[in-house]
Design brief:
Elements (H helix, E strand, L loop, with lengths): L8 E6 L4 E6 L2 E7 L16 E4 L5 E2 L6 E6 L2 E3 L7 E10 L2 E10 L2 E12 L2 E8 L6 E5 L10 E3 L9 E4 L2 E7 L8 E4 L20 E4 L12 E9 L17 H5 L2 E5 L19 H7 L5 E5 L47 H12 L3 E6 L3 E3 L34 E3 L2 H18 L5 E3 L23 H16 L6 E3 L13 E3 L19 H7 L4 E3 L4 H4 L16 H13 L5 E4 L7 H18 L4 E7 L7 E2 L1 H7 L14 E6 L4 E5 L6 E4 L5 E9 L2 E9 L3 E4 L4 E6 L3
Parallel strand pairs: 19-20, 19-28, 20-21, 21-24, 24-25, 25-26, 26-27
Antiparallel strand pairs: 1-2, 2-3, 3-4, 4-5, 6-7, 6-12, 8-9, 9-10, 10-11, 11-18, 12-17, 13-14, 14-15, 15-18, 16-17, 22-23, 29-30, 29-31, 31-32, 32-37, 33-36, 34-35, 34-37
Length: 717
């Protein structure tokens, strides 16, 4: 539920209007029409009966014809469709809760359900539950807003499962409680659905979620039971969901290291081949440049190669005779088709000893989401998840040695057993310093639901969420260091994993990475205190030309792009992560940059709380707006090609640290901050000269360049 400003609440009933009014500090802010008509537009059976009052006094519908999706008389039906009728069975008001009971009918078929409303500060809490153990409900449809003036959708970085409505100088969120849900899947509205044709309405937009209940293998869905939160406020922060989670126990340990995700074969770490760009001793080179503390994720060591043969990952592949010296790109290193593991892990141990000799720590890439056919001796087919028709759920489409080996997703209850077994084998034989878990904490739990009716909580999103959260605890019993998970939907796992690799995504899959606005409020106010975070996405993802079409960046970054990536990490208070991979090679200078700037800043902020977040709208650092003010005044804030792009952010923390970042594509930013002889990190023009510096400085006046300028002032370092 959103954390709104505390206030007093009350509810009144107007019998002539057949409406309940919900008050916050004595002001009506929501109404519910409980009329007993037979269609969606004249009864209280659908979300059409709920209206909200914007800050400017305009009453609007957050969900015009939302409500139950059902199967009645063997037909899929929405509330507004022809033939669907409603009947009020009862309604009453007790203990500050409004309850109404309804029957949704089609021909001779029907479904009964109950709605309950209460108000908590600015949030209207709606509980909806199907009765009589009925399995005819297939989900909730949030439809579209109506009577929304100057409407737009706010896409929140790191809040991937929903968007926020901006209209009438107000912000509105309407979403399901994923901590209590009984559903199978939760997805944000697809961008193709946002726009409502003018001949339908000029004051309407789709912005919320899709909640689905899919049948289990016995043909029945789970009984629909959901809690929804509707919040309208002048401040964006007040409508964002609160993240109820523990504080990850090893987050401080995690934030102190720059991370390198090493994708080539592990045998190349200290003896790289002469082909392509890998012919230098990367780790020794960065050590020579003063990088004394590093965490290395070894991704490509498995018995059958990366993403192949899972869960059978040991003994490690020895990688002899797998590289074609005639290949200038070393293109076949990812999937060795010859399983050479004669050293029984000793070669991998020798390589990790060399990392330790440099003072570096390491983790091994682990993945317990999929099993591969070429590792069939190491798993049971009974553990594979199935869809509603009982068919095995396919995993990564192009995996394995030949990139054609079939993979399948496994039930997350069974995955716990594979994790326990194989991580123990890793601990005993390789003994990593920390842990890295791929996929599980990044993927939408909707994608891992098992519909086998014989399994516990079959068909439920919540089962996956609970299981994956427990994976980090299991791995902490194996490794002494922090447990890092892959990111994307990682807000669901914040506080459970010590550290999360944090690719920058929103609820709109077209707005990601460098294209995303510097809207840091959700990340810094809701997630920052719970876990450590590294990066804003591997660089070949952050600068991907078109992720929707799976077009990754397939070249080395320019120095300008490296600085842009670093500036974004600093804005979100994330430590540095680098991906040494076959598509976008990192450089020595980039590693040194992350080590000297990004990670020390993140470590200094790990226990700090932002007390002010503001956004610049011109070249002066004194002309600032809150996120809410900026978005209302600049409706094109999320378009990086538009001058209104939200690219300048100032954050003041409670420990005195002040951060300015300029990611605006065209405008510079004049900044004066701090006191002389204190610690600064900056990429800025100082006295007309472009400088990149970290350390004590007498400079307090800076011009932050467009795209990638920053200055961070740390009074006590």
């Amino acid at each position: 539920m959103p954390t709104t400003t505390p206030g007093t609440n009350s509810i009144t009933y107007n019998s002539s209007e057949q409406k309940f009014y919900f008050y916050y500090n004595g002001i009506q802010i929501y109404s519910y029409f409980v009329g007993n008509g037979s269609t969606w537009d004249n009864c209280g059976a659908t979300f059409n009966a709920i209206k909200a009052k914007a800050i400017n006094g305009n009453w609007f519908w957050p969900s015009y014809v939302g409500g139950l999706k059902v199967i009645l008389d063997n037909q899929h039906k929405f509330p507004w469709e022809s033939g669907v009728q409603f009947e009020r069975l009862n309604y009453y008001f007790t203990n500050e809760t409004v309850t109404s009971e309804w029957r949704m009918k089609l021909n001779n078929d029907f479904i009964d359900y109950e709605l309950k409303f209460k108000i908590v500060n600015r949030t209207l809490v709606l509980n909806i539950e199907v009765k009589n153990n009925s399995t005819k409900a297939t989900g909730l449809h949030f439809d579209r807003s109506e009577n929304s003036n100057k409407k737009s959708i706010v896409h929140i970085p790191y809040l991937n499962l929903l968007n926020v409505l901006c209209s009438d100088n107000s912000f509105t969120s309407f979403f399901v409680d994923w901590e209590q849900t009984n559903c199978s899947s939760i997805y944000p509205v697809d961008p193709s659905e946002y726009t409502v044709p003018d001949d339908v309405s000029k004051k309407s937009i789709r912005y919320s979620q899709h909640i689905n209940y899919y049948p289990k293998t016995n043909g029945l869905t789970n009984q629909l039971k959901e809690t929804l939160y509707l919040t309208v406020a002048a401040s964006l922060d007040e409508v964002l969901p609160n993240i109820v989670a523990p504080y990850a126990p090893r987050r401080e340990q995690a934030i102190s290291k720059t991370i390198v995700s090493y994708g080539p074969p592990y045998t190349w770490m200290f003896s790289p081949p002469k082909c392509s760009q890998y012919n230098y001793d990367y780790f020794q080179e960065i050590k020579n440049r003063g990088v004394n503390d590093l965490g290395v994720i070894i991704k490509n060591y498995q018995k059958y190669g990366y993403d192949s043969g899972y869960p059978e990952i040991l003994p490690a592949n020895d990688w002899d005779k797998n590289n074609d010296p005639r290949s200038p790109e070393c293109s076949n290193y990812l999937h060795p088709c010859k399983n050479t593991n004669n050293s029984k892990n000793q070669l991998l141990i020798d390589e990790t000893d060399l990392l330790h000799n440099l003072g570096y720590t390491f983790a091994l890439h682990e993945n317990y989401v999929e099993v591969y056919e070429n590792g069939s001796n190491s798993y049971s087919k009974d553990d594979i998840s199935v869809n509603s028709e009982g068919r095995p759920v396919r995993g990564w489409a192009e995996g394995g040695c030949t990139k054609q080996d079939t993979s399948y997703k496994i039930n997350t209850d069974k995955a716990k057993n594979y994790l326990a077994t194989w991580s123990e084998k890793i601990r005993k034989s390789i003994n990593p310093d920390f842990g890295y878990l791929d996929v599980s904490s990044g993927i939408n739990p909707s994608e891992l639901v098992d519909y086998d009716v014989s399994e516990i909580d079959a068909g439920k999103f919540k089962r996956v969420l609970t299981n994956v959260r427990s994976f980090a605890d299991s791995l902490r019993t194996k490794y002494p260091g922090p447990i890092q998970g892959e990111g994307q939907n990682h807000f669901l796992y914040t506080g459970y994993f010590d550290d999360l690799e944090a690719p920058l995504f929103t609820g709109n899959y077209f707005i990601y990475g460098y294209k995303a606005p510097m809207l840091v409020d959700f990340d810094l106010r809701k997630l920052h205190s719970k876990s450590a975070f590294h990066g804003v996405g591997y660089q070949y993802l952050f600068f991907a030309p078109d992720l929707v079409k799976n077009q990754l960046l397939k070249r080395a970054l320019t120095w300008d792009e490296i600085l842009t990536n670093t500036a974004t990490e600093i804005a979100f208070a994330h430590a540095g992560i680098l991906a040494k991979a076959y598509v976008a090679e990192l450089t020595i200078d980039q590693t040194v940059l992350e080590y000297n700037h990004t990670t020390p800043i993140a470590a200094a902020l790990i226990n700090a709380t932002p007390i002010s977040i503001q956004y610049g709208y011109d070249t002066s650092s004194t002309n600032l707006q809150t996120a809410s003010e900026y978005i209302i005044a600049h409706p094109n804030y999320a378009d990086i090609t538009n001058p209104e792009f939200m690219g300048k952010v100032k954050v003041i923390y409670d420990n005195g640290i002040i951060v300015y970042v300029n990611r605006h594509p065209d405008q510079t930013w004049n900044v004066t901050v701090g006191s002389p002889d204190k610690w600064f990190s900056y990429h800025a023009f100082v006295n007309g000269q472009e400088q990149l510096y970290a350390g004590q400085s007498n400079n307090t006046s800076f011009v932050l360049p467009a795209k990638n300028g920053w200055v961070v002032y740390i009074p006590e370092f």
